[in-house]
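User: Sequence in, structure out. Go.
Assistant: Echoing your sequence, followed by the structure tokens.
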Amino acid sequence: MAENKDISVLIVDDNDMTRETLRVILRHEVYNVVGEALDGDGALEMATRLKPDIILLDVVMPKVSGIEALRSIRMVMPDVMILMVTANKDQDTVSEAVKSGISGYIIKPFNAKKVLDTIQGVATKVRAARAQAAANQG
């Protein structure tokens, strides 16, 4: 399990229970949860300050929606992996998220296996990008 400590994750959701559930699932698999935000404004601030490898981003939040936050984060962190976490299966929302550059989706209600499978796939891409960057420098 210790192999996941190198992957930092930011959780963004306005629902306390969802954030706590995701935190417990991730920490059980020894992912490095570096922060949590309640809305899109907090997501942008924390993402730029903490520079996580992966952001779990709710779609429907107060103040700034997940889609708006996604666009803002992409402007300053184009390579960060962003997984949308949502119960919203509306085709327009999904299409907008894909156009805005999501790395994947986790549909609510979720279970630990689905969350971990999705994050592990993205973590593999993060590690591959790091290895490629290191090879290009060396």
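User: And one key feature?
Assistant: The chain has a mean pLDDT of 93.
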